[in-house]
């Protein structure tokens, strides 16, 4: 336990150091020299210990980043969190239903999934926005807010847009993990003692693939972060990436990266510890 804690602490320290150095890299690239780069690194590291003093320039005025930035963090992670949960839930349900289909139908579904995975994220967002606008123009029914204006914050449509491609990714991955589990001995043993296919899938195989899915979902999270940049721009959302794009400075860039990294890092590290102390990395009957 102590060794795990030391390992996690070192990983966290190295990652934070790397983010700070990355945030200061523009100073070095501007030709200011290694001395200016070093001083900026020290300034940002010291500023992170006093986040309430971090400021950005808006016009000719220095504006404190916090507490305004806190709302942006909460908003962005609300969208990401619900989108990830929606993608995970829908992909698992679709996977179980797909695995219960006849083999020929299942192969066609898998082919369709592989084809749709290459759809650009910006196309998904624009099509869904266009769909909502068209419904409103034709029927007068406003399904949801399509853009952020003043105090109006869209939630439903951004969450749907952000979850579409991750759902396809997790769906494809879940099918692959399901098929890997089916090649093992315990599903055959369970079937031989009279357990129904649906029961084996849901109670035994699903439990095991959830463990593997958690470990491999990190790629999906980073994919969602890249989509978040496009999403917040197209919906005019004042989230984390808005500050990065509009107030490009080493201080804002570093703070934004840390705001994204720290919650995700803690989520996966605590999740890994929980899984290792409960079910390990998957088990049979």
From TrEMBL:
GO terms for cellular component: plasma membrane. The keyword Lyase does not apply. InterPro entries: MetI-like. The keyword Transport applies. It is found in: Cell membrane. GO terms for biological process: transmembrane transport. This is ABC transporter permease subunit. It comes from Metabacillus lacus.
């Amino acid at each position: 336990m102590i060794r795990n804690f030391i390992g996690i602490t070192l990983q966290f320290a190295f990652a934070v150091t790397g983010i700070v150095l990355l945030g200061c890299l523009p100073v070095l690239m501007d030709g200011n020299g290694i001395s200016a780069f070093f001083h900026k690194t020290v300034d940002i590291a010291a500023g992170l210990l006093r986040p309430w003093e971090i400021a950005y320039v808006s016009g000719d005025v220095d504006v404190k980043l916090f507490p305004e930035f806190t709302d942006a963090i909460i908003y962005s992670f609300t969208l990401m969190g619900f989108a990830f949960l929606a993608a995970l839930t829908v992909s698992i349900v679709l996977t179980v239903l797909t695995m219960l289909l006849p083999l020929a139908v299942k192969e066609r579904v898998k082919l369709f999934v592989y084809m749709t995975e290459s759809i650009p994220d910006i196309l998904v967002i624009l099509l869904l926005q266009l769909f909502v606008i068209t419904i409103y123009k034709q029927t007068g029914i406003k399904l949801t807010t399509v853009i952020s204006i003043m105090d109006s914050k869209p939630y439903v449509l951004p969450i749907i847009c952000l979850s579409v491609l991750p759902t396809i990714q997790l769906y494809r991955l879940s099918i692959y993990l399901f098929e890997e589990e089916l090649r093992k001995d315990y599903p055959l043993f369970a079937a031989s003692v009279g357990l129904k296919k649906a029961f084996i899938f849901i109670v035994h195989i699903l439990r095991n693939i959830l463990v593997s899915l958690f470990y491999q979902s990190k790629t999906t999270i980073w994919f969602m972060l890249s989509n978040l940049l496009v999403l917040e721009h197209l919906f005019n959302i004042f989230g984390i990436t808005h500050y990065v794009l509009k107030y490009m400075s080493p201080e804002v860039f570093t703070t934004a990266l840390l705001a994204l990294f720290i919650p995700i890092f803690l989520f996966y590290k605590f999740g890994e510890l929980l899984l290792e102390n409960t079910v390990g990395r998957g088990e049979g009957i």
